[in-house]
């Protein structure tokens, strides 16, 4: 695939959407006036939309495309200035308010998702560096002055961790808050995938 074709493909992905509801409609016959009178041969069906399509920005796909465009920009040769200018123009386009809000929401979701697995250190690691080759030569009576260092990290006491329950509970509560406050369906789906349940449904089960 040529460089300009690749740029065009990534440009399309910057407008990627998730379809929440497919468009529904029907065709109605429209009679166009032909030769001064209505003629059946001039039948032209017109699409009437009963339910418009409902979409939201596909943030994950757009972020991936934007990242690839940035990497592509930095990998272009100096003589490929036309391609570079085109990429810069694409990257400088303003994002919609929906995309900006979803972008921030996904950053927050990903951050708290990591904290769902937070651990705390209960025992610090104890280690030191040992130059085994130098030590072996020294024990054999050889001169080690000309030897290159060959240090190896030796762990005496390994690090011990345990789940940070407090941090994990905070992360879960924050994700549930985002779920109830966001208006975006794909953000809710993302949170459901992270938590493994829909917060509203869980609360209803607990009340029962």
Give a description of the structure:
The chain has 208 residues and is an alpha+beta fold. It has a domain of 34 residues. The protein is built from eight helices and eight strands, in the order αββββαααββαββααα. Strands 1-4 form a two-stranded antiparallel ribbon. Strands 2-3 form a two-stranded antiparallel sheet. A two-stranded antiparallel ribbon has the order 5-8. Helix 1 packs antiparallel against helix 2, helix 1 packs parallel to helix 3 and helix 4 packs antiparallel against helix 6. 9% of the residues are buried.
Topology:
Layout: H1 3-13, E1 17-21, E2 24-34, E3 37-51, E4 54-57, H2 59-75, H3 81-91, H4 97-115, E5 119-123, E6 126-130, H5 132-139, E7 152-157, E8 160-163, H6 165-181, H7 185-195, H8 199-207
Antiparallel strand pairs: 1-4, 2-3, 5-8, 6-7
Helix pairs in contact: 1-2, 1-3, 2-3, 4-6, 4-7, 6-7
Could you give a quick summary of the protein structure above?
The protein is 50% helix and 26% strand.
Elements, N to C (H/E): HEEEEHHHEEHEEHHH
Oligomeric organization of the protein chains: single chain
Question: How many individual β-strands?
Answer: 8
Q: Could you estimate the helical fraction of the residues in percent? A: 40-55%
Please give the radius of gyration in angstroms: 30 Å
Shape descriptor reads: flat
Pairing-aware structural class of the strands and helices?
alpha+beta
Largest sheet: 2 strands, antiparallel
Mean pLDDT: 86
Q: Order of strands in the sheet with the most strands?
A: 1-4
Distance between the termini: 58 Å
Our count of helices gives 8
Estimate what percentage of residues fall within beta strands: 25-35%
**pLDDT < 50 stretches:** none
């Amino acid at each position: 695939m040529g460089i300009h074709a690749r740029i065009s493909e990534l440009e399309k992905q910057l407008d990627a959407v998730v379809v929440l509801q497919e468009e529904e409609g029907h065709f109605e016959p429209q009679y166009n006036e032909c030769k001064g009178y209505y003629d059946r041969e001039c039948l032209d069906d017109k699409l009437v939309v009963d339910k418009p399509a409902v979409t939201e920005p596909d943030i994950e796909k757009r972020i991936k495309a934007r990242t690839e465009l940035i990497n592509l920009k930095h990998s272009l040769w100096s003589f490929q200035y036309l391609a570079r200018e085109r990429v810069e123009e694409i990257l400088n386009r303003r994002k919609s308010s929906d995309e900006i809000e979803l972008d921030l929401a996904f950053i927050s979701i990903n951050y708290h998702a990591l904290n769902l697995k937070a651990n705390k250190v209960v025992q610090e690691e104890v280690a030191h560096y040992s130059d085994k080759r130098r030590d072996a030569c020294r024990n054999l009576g050889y001169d080690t002055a000309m030897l290159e260092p060959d240090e190896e990290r030796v762990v005496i006491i390994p690090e011990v961790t345990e789940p940070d329950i407090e941090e994990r509970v905070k992360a879960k509560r924050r994700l549930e808050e985002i779920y109830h406050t966001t208006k975006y369906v794909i953000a809710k789906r993302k949170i459901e995938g992270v938590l493994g349940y829909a917060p509203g449904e869980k609360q209803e089960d607990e009340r029962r």
